[in-house]
Amino acid sequence: LIIVLLFYSSAVLIDALATAGTVQAHNVARRRFTETQPGLLKRYLQALAWTTNINEAIIKDLQQWYSKCHSAGESQQICLQVGYTLASMLRRYCHSSTSQKNACIKGKYQILNKFLGKLMECDDIQCHKNSLNILLNFPVETSLNYAARFICSNENGTNSVQRIALKLLAELPTEKISGKVLKKVMQVFRNSCPLPQTTTDQTLATEVLLNAVPQHSTVGPFLLRMESTCPKNNERWAFFYDNLAVRRRIDELVPVYI
């Protein structure tokens, strides 16, 4: 089958190789598209992210590929897509069984550890943004401290990173978010950080805080107090009440069995 497919360079070829999810198909795709049709390599990686055959050997290859991607002279687009695909496959692999999930959560899965370590080796703003965007595909608890670094920072240029970090915090289990981190999120919400906060960042902070209400007893009173002391910014409060209404409807739809 692979020999026949080598004569074609189309969406059918790409999807067939990605769907196969075998090491042989992956090696053929990576070699062929890298050498002769690099424009199709990104499309293959996008398709591979959704393969139903989660192969650990392919995950390992992607991790090694990502770790050497930039130094090997690959384009930033390809390196990013390798990261997105690896994060998507790791998410499903880590949830494939209880034992595997525990290994990932407890930091015992070395492929995941190496990937996360490489993601956080950044020296510039754009690198941090890319890493946080990749982590949105697989929001793991170990990324919490990394994301928290950019919340309410006093470093110029970090506001754009903060926006992605807030999105990541909104995806993480709120019981794992410390009171110290939530305090920084509250500062974003009330625009009391060293740098001015946009309405977009404040609404993202609202999402994180509303998620935290059930586990953190101080968050609810803080939000109620803020409404009376800082009623300005109608857009922020409109989002707050719209979000509450949606959550209330969802709660009402959850069946209760007695």
TrEMBL record:
Q: Would the keyword Methyltransferase turn up in this protein's UniProt record?
A: no
Domain Vitellogenin, chain residue ranges per copy = 11-192
What is any one of the record's Gene Ontology cellular component terms?
A: endoplasmic reticulum
Q: Which GO terms describe its molecular function?
A: phospholipid transporter activity
Which positions make up the signal peptide? 1-25
Task: Reply yes or no: does the keyword NADP apply.
Answer: no
Name the keywords, alphabetized. Answer: Signal
**GO annotation terms (biological process):** lipoprotein metabolic process
Q: What is this protein called?
A: Vitellogenin domain-containing protein
- Top-down, what is the taxonomic lineage of the species of origin? Eukaryota, Metazoa, Ecdysozoa, Nematoda, Chromadorea
